[in-house]
Amino acid sequence: MTLTSPPRAAATVSGRPAARRPNRMRAWATRAPLLPALIFMIIVTQLPFVATLVISFFDWNALYPDQRRFAAFANYGEVLTNPELRKSVGTTILLTVTVVLVSLVLGLLLALLLDRRFRGRAVVRTMLIAPFLLVPIAAALMWKHLLFNPEYGLFNGILNAIGGEGAIQPDWISEMPLLAVEAALIWQWTPFMMLILLAGLQSRDSELIEAARMDGASGWQIFVHITLPHMRRYLELGVLLGSIYIVQNFDAVFTITSGGLGTANLPYTIYQTFYQAHENGLASAAGVIVVIGSLILATFALRVVSSLFREEVSR
Amino acid sequence: MATATATAARTTGAAPRKGRVQGAVLGVVAWLAGLVFVMPLLWMVLTSFHSETDAATNPPSVAASLTLDGYREFFGLTGGASPWPALINSLTASLVSTLLTLLLALPAAYALSIRPVKKWTDVLFFFLSTKMLPLVAALLPIYLFAKNTGLLDNIWMLVILYTAMNLPIAVWMMQSFLAEVPVAIIEAAQIDGARLPTVLGRVVAPIALPGIAATALICFIFSWNELMFARVLTGVVAETAPVFLTTFITSQGLFLAKVCAASLVISLPVLAAGFAAQDKLVQGLSLGAVK
Question: What does the UniProt entry say about where the protein is found (chain B) (predicted)?
Answer without folding.
Answer: Cell membrane
